[in-house]
Structure formats: C-alpha cells, structure tokens
Specification:
Elements lengths: L6 E5 L3 H12 L3 E5 L3 H8 L10 H7 L4 E4 L2 H5 L4 E4 L14 H9 L8 E4 L7 H11 L6 E4 L9 H6 L4 E5 L2 H10 L7 E4 L1 H32 L3 H9 L20 H14 L5 H25 L6 E5 L14 H11 L3 E5 L11 E3 L3 H5 L4 E4 L11 H6 L5 E4 L6 H6 L3 E3 L10
Parallel strand pairs: 1-2, 1-4, 2-3, 4-5, 5-6, 7-8, 9-10, 9-12, 10-11, 12-13, 13-14
Antiparallel strand pairs: 6-7
The structure holds uridine-5'-diphosphate-glucuronic acid.
Uridine-5'-diphosphate-glucuronic acid (UGA) binds next to helix 9 and helix 11.
Length: 432
C-alpha cells in the first residue's frame, strides 16, 4: 500500500485506536499510539496485542517500524500533523454519552504554534464537534483544526472494515482540514462522504440505528412467525432478494449486544430527548431487543417445565463470534435470568471469559459443557459449533434439549439426532 508517510498520533489503544493506528501504519504513515494505561503500552511494546481482533497482531507486527507506543502526550504529538481521538464514550446513568475522556484529550493537548488537525473517531452526540471547537478556541488553539471522522468498523472484521470500507465520512469546519484527513486515506478505494461536522456525527449514529432497527424488525417478524407457523429464515431470504431491502442484518436471534449498539441507541435516544423529541422507532427497537434477550427463558420453561435445579449449558459468551468482547452480551443477561430461576449454569466460549458472571461455571470444551446438561442454548454462532457430532453430544446429556438462539443448526438434522430442538422464529420446524 502507498501513502506519503505523515506523522499521526492516535489517542486510545482500545479496539478502535489500535485498528486505526495499525491500518494507518499499513498505509505508510508513522503512528504514535498513546494510552493512559501503562500496562497496555508496555504489553504493546513487547509485541503483545491486548485485545482479540483477527489480523490485528499481524498488521502491528508487519508495520512495527512505523508504530510507536507511549503514555506521554508530548511524545505522541511531537512532530505529528494529526491527532486521532479513539477514546471510550460509555453511557452515563442518564443514557447520555460520557465524553470525559474526549475532554481530557482536548485539555491535554500541549500549546503549540504549528497547525495540526484533531480528528474524532469515537462515537459522540451531534454537537460535540462544535463544543470541541469552542474549547480549542478558548484554549488559544484556534489554529488547531477539527474533523469528525467516525469509524464504521465492526469487531471481528475491523481491519478489513478499515482498509476496505463501504465509505469514509469526513466532517470538517475547514475544507482544507477535511482534504488533509481524506489524503491520509490514500490507498483505500472507497467513496468519501464530505459533510459538515454535525452531519458526520449524525451519519454514525443513524447508521448504527438503522442496523439495530433491522435486527429488532427481523426479531419481531421471527416472533410473529413462531405464532403463525412461518419460518423466519425463509422469510429473511425471501425479502432479502429485494434490492431495496438487501440481505444483510436480517438474522433473527437472541438480540444485539456489544460495545456499540446498546450504548449508541441510548445515546441517540437521549440526544433526541434532550432536544425535546421522542424517538418512537428507536425506543421500540431498544425495548424489542431487551425482550428478545429474555425470550429464550420462556422457550426453556416450555421444554423443561421448570428451570429450578436444571443444568443449562450456554454455548458462547461473546456478543458475537470473532471477538472476546462480552459487553452487553445476551449470554450474560440469559445467565443472570437462569441463575435467578434456580438453574445451574455452565458456559463455554473459545475466547471470551465468564469473568463477572458470579455463579456460572466456565468449562474448556463443548463436550464438558454439554455432558449431564438438561438443555443447551446456542447463544453465539461460533463456527466450531456447526460441525459437531450432535447425536453423540446429545447422548451425553441428561435430556437432549437444544434452543438454537442463532438459527445456526439444521432443525431437521437436530431432530433426527434425537433432540427436542427449538430456535428463533422457526415455528414450522420446532416440532411442537
Ligand atoms: C457495529 C456496527 O456493525 C459497525 O458498523 C460499527 O462501526 C460498530 O457497531 C460501532 O459503532 O463501533 P459491532 O458492534 O462490532 O459493530 O458488531 P455487529 O457485527 O454489528 O453486531 C452487533 C450485534 O448485532 C451482535 O450482537 C450480533 O449478534 C447482532 N446481529 C447482527 C444480529 O442479531 N443479527 C444480525 O443480522 C446482525
């Protein structure tokens, strides 16, 4: 890949910051990644990648000579023309985004004579850029440019999403700053959407809201399918061929989780509410998702009569495959509900940990999780769950009951393997 070797500082060595830094290095830039956690920086310097993100370790290793890690602000910014901010913006109790980490970065910027551009990757409420602009001006940094450059990378495919994106969005107060940030992406073949700062901020929130709406929509279609005898997998296929609808993000399941959707839905809801607008569709999307995460409990009760003293095996803890992230993971909600109902919960995941799930026993293998269980719930569609000998596994269970929370397995095959099988929105084949 090409690039004319600009100097970039990235603030925040989380998923977004590390991927941004590694990919800019891959494009030929020299990148300083700065984080406030010394252990994280020390690990990165030793060549250890503190998160699980496919392809990231290769990229960091391959571009090691262009990457530099530090906890020191001055060192990170020294000689840099760009500061990319990729710090966390978690929800507060009110549902608003907590921007304190963003403000800390802005306040920590050293006084400088030269013009640099601050580019915000973190997801923030619309209006944040204007506030940052004022704060920079108030600090005597009117000559420091500001650009909104939201990220659209998904965990598990983040490297590819950065280097082969559907689009790059750049919102700038000053056209020249937008041009400079656009030029950093040279080597990437994608449309660049140039916008004002507020619109760029809204594009990010609206994109995530649209994706979440699709998921809650298909989950509700699934629930109606269950009540009426239709099969949501067929329905999704049938509607997905319509080019106006499209095929992606129509997989019904146990609801969405992760570090982005739940947080961003609340932030957008709150942003609207703060300006006096009740965002009805988004409120429904959030509520449907909360109910969806709990629906599996009803299915288990129907299949087992009671959950008290039943051993339930959860297969998958991560909020989706390809990541060790368990933030807002449906598995955690399920585990909490199952424990509250008096069940014993055993969990397996190839990379994610049950840390924080008091009362859940995490085991090393699917065999171990399933053996002696009264029911299995497939919560995360890890590819390794597809090719298993379910007949043999079922024979080791106390009762061969499986709820497929991701519609991953073939209902007829599972039934043929001796299971009482239920899934999401597949009434036509649930055998009841
Ligand atoms: C999401 C977006 O996809 C990214 O574009 C965005 O940049 C990112 O949030 C962010 O704001 O940072 P991510 O949370 O990593 O990325 O994961 P997704 O692949 O979007 O999945 C989110 C959740 O939706 C998962 O729990 C997944 O299981 C669920 N999902 C997804 C469904 O239930 N059905 C689907 O059809 C698709």
């Amino acid at each position: 890949m090409s690039g004319d070797g600009k100097r970039i500082a990235v603030f925040g060595a989380g998923y977004v910051g590390l991927v941004t830094g590694a990919c800019f290095a891959e494009l030929g830039h020299r990148v300083a990644i700065r984080d406030i956690v010394p252990d994280r920086i020390a690990a990165l310097r030793r060549g250890e990648v503190p998160i699980y993100e496919p392809g990231l370790d290769d990229l960091l290793e391959r571009n090691a000579e262009r990457l530099f890690y530090t906890t020191d602000v001055e060192e990170a910014i020294d000689g840099a023309g760009f500061v990319f901010v990729a710090v966390g913006t978690p929800p507060t109790y009110s549902g608003d985004a907590d921007l304190s980490a963003v403000w800390t970065v802005i306040d920590e910027l050293p006084e400088m004579e030269r013009r640099i551009v601050v580019a915000l990757k973190s997801t923030v409420p619309v209006g944040t850029g204007t506030k940052v602009r004022h704060r920079l001006d108030a600090r005597g940094l009117a000559h420091v440019g500001y650009v909104s450059n939201p990220e659209f990378t998904a965990e598990g495919t983040a490297v590819r999403d950065f280097l082969e994106p559907d689009r790059i969005v750049i919102g700038a107060f000053d056209e020249a700053d937008g041009d400079a940030v656009a030029a950093l992406h040279s080597g990437i073949d994608a449309p660049i959407v140039r916008a004002d700062v507020a619109s760029a901020e809204m594009i990010k929130l609206a994109a995530n809201a649209a994706l979440m709406t699709r998921i809650s929509f298909i989950n509700e279609i699934a629930n109606v399918c269950e009540a009426t005898g239709a099969d949501v997998v067929k329905v999704a296929e049938g509607i997905g061929y319509d080019r106006r609808i499209g095929k992606s993000f129509l997989r019904a399941g146990v609801g969405f989780g992760g570090s982005c959707f739940p947080k961003d839905s609340l932030a957008l809801k709150q942003l609207a509410a703060n300006s006096g607008y009740h965002f009805q569709v988004l409120n429904a999307v959030i509520e449907v998702n909360e109910l969806q995460k709990r629906r599996v409990i009803g299915k288990l009760v129907e299949l087992l009569d009671t959950l008290r003293d039943k051993r339930i095996a959860l297969l998958g803890l991560a909020f989706k495959p390809g990541t060790d992230d368990t933030r807002e993971a449906p598995a955690f909600v399920l585990a909490g509900r199952l424990l509250a109902e008096g069940a014993e919960v055993v969990a397996w995941d190839p990379v994610a940990s049950a840390d924080g799930l008091t009362g859940v026993r995490q085991v090393e293998s699917v065999d171990e999780a399933v053996r002696g269980a009264d029911a299995v719930v497939l919560v995360t569609e890890w590819p390794e769950l597809g090719g298993l000998d379910w007949r043999a596994l079922g024979a080791t269970m106390r009762t061969a009951v499986l709820v497929d929370g991701r519609n991953m397995l073939d209902p007829d095959e599972m039934r043929g393997a001796g299971f009482r099988y239920d899934a999401i929105g597949r009434a036509a084949s649930n055998g009841r």
